Amino acid sequence: MTEFARLIELPPAGTESFFLWGPRQAGKSTLLHECYPDAAWIDLLKSELLRKYAAAPQTLREIAAERPGVKRRLVVSTVADSRTTEDGIEILGVMDFVNMLWDGALF
Question: DSSP 3-state helix, strand, coil percentages of the chain (rounded to 5)?
Fold first, then answer.
């Protein structure tokens, strides 16, 4: 397998927010896995995971509870209403998330 040097350096985990986009199969996920190996990963493109979390969204709480050092627990939802659960997980609508990200208000 051929390895290529990256022209981008991502910030340390938890220090700032950013967008990462590009064409399919360009290596975005690989880059994120290399830069943030300790991050929790939920790939909703895998249909079994999408069904699991759609049927029982409380399982996201279990993942968050396993990571006590997490500064902020956040879910981005296609539902427009933003809210916070009783255990402190913020659920943001996509537009609220984008606006907060743009304003630098997430971290």
Answer: 30, 10, 60
Alpha-carbon gap, residue 2 to 18, rounded angstroms: 27
Each residue of 35-64: pLDDT tens digit?
Answer: 888 887 777 778 888 888 778 877 877 777
Q: How is the beta sheet containing 83-84 ordered, strand by strand?
A: 74-77, 90-93, 83-84
Which tokens sit at 88? 């402190």
Task: Tell whether 95 is covered by a domain.
Answer: yes
Whole-angstrom distance, CA of residue 27 vs CA of residue 86: 37
Torsion sign (Cα): 25, 31, 36, 38: positive
Q: Which residue did the predictor score with more confidence, 31 or 15?
A: 31
7 inside domain: no
Both tokens of 49, joined, read: 């995971």
Residue 66: inside a domain, yes or no?
yes
